[in-house]
Amino acid sequence: MPGGAKKDLSAQQARALLGTVRPRDVVGKTRRRLASELIGELVVIDKKIKTAKQELTDLVASTGSRLMDLTGIGPSGAARLLGDIGDIHRFPSRAHFASWNGTAPIDASSGDQNRHRLSRAGNRRINRALHIMAIVQLRRDTEGRRYYRRRLAAGKPRWRPYGH
């Protein structure tokens, strides 16, 4: 909207803003009607998202899992982890789990030069859920952020998501 509306409007905010628009020509009235219909669709979608989120929260809680207590893991991520991993004890070690989900670095050393690169293998859905969790923990004041800062202070290289 040319008037300077923010980009991330809720359906309620958009409806209130649209209520202030009084077009006079046919084109403006058509645009307003179409915008009103889109807002109605957003309301339905928002309700579906809220219902799905509550169902996933209840489902994860029914397993006795405490995954959602971790910073950066919501109902969707917890359900994904539980569904794909199943019993964590099926992995004999942390390294085996890291290899399975694609978070274990791959040796790319040559001669005297020791290097590692990111793995593109493994379960990409789990890798993504863990990546989101890491990003959220770095953005907030968490133990994950404190660990990262300790590693930087020890002279370790800066971690850059997506290779940037």
Automatic annotation (TrEMBL):
It holds the Pfam family Transposase_20. InterPro entries: Transpos_IS110 (IPR047650), Transposase_20 (IPR003346). It comes from the Bacteria. Signal peptide: none annotated. Transmembrane segments: none annotated. Residues 65-149 form the Transposase IS116/IS110/IS902 C-terminal domain. PANTHER family: PUTATIVE TRANSPOSASE FOR IS117-RELATED, TRANSPOSASE FOR INSERTION SEQUENCE ELEMENT IS1111A. This is Transposase. It comes from Micromonospora purpureochromogenes. The lineage of its organism: Bacteria, Bacillati, Actinomycetota, Actinomycetes, Micromonosporales.
